[in-house]
Amino acid sequence: MMSSLLMLFVVLLTSIVDCGSRRRSKSYRSRYGKYGYDRWDKCPNIKGFFSYDPKSPCGPQHWHKKYPNCGGDTQSPIDIQTDKTRCGEDDGYERVYYKPSGKSKGIFENNGHAPNFKVKKGDHSNILILGDDERNDDDGTRYVFKGLHFHIGKRRSSYGSEHTVNKKGYKGEIHLVHNREKAKRTNTGDDDKENGHEKKYLVVGVFFDVFDDCGSYADKLISKYVTKIPEYLDETKRAEVRPILMLPEDGKYYYYVGSKTTPGCYPGFLWIIFKTPTTVCKKNYKVLKDLETWEAGNPPLSKFGNNRPIQRYAVDDVKMNFGKRCRGTK
Asked: Shortest CA distance to 115 belongs to which of 300, 309, 310?
């Protein structure tokens, strides 16, 4: 009889302890998230810091905890599924070009997460135009070139581009960043918005593959400038970039509205992703891989890469300016 009562007492005690443990576990997860004790103060004390290390409490899967936009519904990058794209001829975005087109002056810097060209303040040497001349003067389709940077993957990864096409990536991706020029008349109509966000920013994405021979414009920029910024916070005294030389000659691209791909992941970015990749030679690709980063211990860029994981698949609002679905194009 005593042994039975003792056994019953042990069972009840175990049940109470287990229940309390589950309550504490639930409270722990609700307070700190399903990944556990995710504290940004455990990361390097650098203003604006974020990490590409998937095991870091500041890695891509945690960005939304400090930067809420990073958990939004229209985040970039995306996988472009070509069978879901449609012709965007009614948008007037049938081509893009620079006018004026010249040399933008600025500096190349190693900001710790990418080799970055930053245009000198007030330089309007290159303005990207969407559509045709007769409609670009005052309708908000003019974007001022502000900078350029490179994305690559971690070592032994199958790809390093941020965007993919039919789940296929490229070795890397170059981003040309633009801000919309103020229109001569204020346009607040529906044509200026998509997914509820004004398209104040435009990023041109150009994929690249890696080959033996050096000769592309990307190679020229890496050889001339990026080789001079191997360490975190290095910068050149001056640099010049002609963004038009980065655009593929066939002019074929996809476009959609998404977000900035780094914190704070702001929405309202118009993305133009060129179909045809450029090239970077093996010698210069190694320069990119060996760049020192701001990650703990300053490892090379190739340790974690700097391409954000795909945020959306099967996106329905991707358009293109080429193909059989577009009249007058091949």
From this structure: 300
